[in-house]
Structure formats: C-alpha cells, structure tokens
Here is the input.
Amino acid sequence: MRLILASNSPRRRDLLELLSDDFAVVPSFADESATGVPSERAIDAARAKVNAVARDVSGVVIGADTIVVIDAQILGKPRTCSDARKMLETLSGRTHRVLTGVCILNTETRQERTHCEETRVTFRALRDREIDAYLDTGEYHDKAGAYAIQGKAMKFISKIEGDYANVMGLPLCCLISMLRELGVDL
Here is the structure.
C-alpha cells in the first residue's frame, strides 16, 4: 500500500523518511481553521488535509497539524515579526503544550485512525536580546508558537516531557502504532 504524506512541511518529510523512504508527498491546501478544544482542532485540521489529498490519490494518506497552547491561548503561526516576538515573550520562562493531531486514511478501505499527541515544553527565561537575535534568523516563519525546536530555538528549551518528534510536527511512535492498526508495517 502506497504511503502519501499530505503536507508540504520539510520537517514532516524528514521525519517520515526516518521510517520509510517509500512514500509520496502531496501538499494539501485544505482550510486548517478548525474550531473546538485544541486537541479537536488539531485532529480536525489533520483530517481536512487528508481528505483534501485523498480525493485525488489512492493509498494510505497521512496528515498532521501542530499547534502550541499556553494557558487557554492557541499560538498559531506568526503573521509578522511582531507576532513572533509576542509569542516568544509569552513562552519565556513557562511551560506550554505542543499538540499534533494526526489523521491516517486508507483510501481503499476507508478505514481512518486519528490521535492527538501532547508534549510539554518548558522555555527558560529569555532576554530581549536573545529574542531579537532569534527573530533576526527568520527561523520563526511558518512555525506554530514562532519557534523550531530542532533549530536555533533549541537553546531556549530547559525541559521537554514527551515525544520530541511531536514538537517538530510528526509524532513517530504514535504514527507507527496507527499505521500498524491499518495493516502497514514499517
């Protein structure tokens, strides 16, 4: 059965390559503006990506959507540098949750599996000049919560509880279990 990653994310592609080199990438341009509690929003956005791609392809389609939550606030992808600064200031010295909704659909059997993985990430207290330097790298672009754990923001992390790959955008342990439930053994 052919694996299809419904994403244009280079991070998700790199993570899936750790499990298999036999998959196709089909970007999804689905509407990701789901509503509800954060875990439901992440799963619904992942499902929307899968369904958008599954209309045109056959196989096992994998979709994921990652959000950052602190208190009751969802930190999406920053639209501006100013947005990114506010997000990093909010995360400074605090623990937040990174949620990745995963949806997998076998287009032939119509079997679907969903899951929301949660990882807790703690930032150390950041100085203004550290935030400035990070923003100057541009790494925050297109990143939920305005940071990439696998990049220069790694130095901001004092503690992580849960799946590191989840924070990058694709929880691998959970993904393997879900694929096995659908008969795909990697």
Q: What stands out?
A: The chain has six helices and seven strands. The first helix runs from residue 10 to 17. Helices lie at 10-17, 38-54, 81-91, 128-137, 164-168, 172-181.
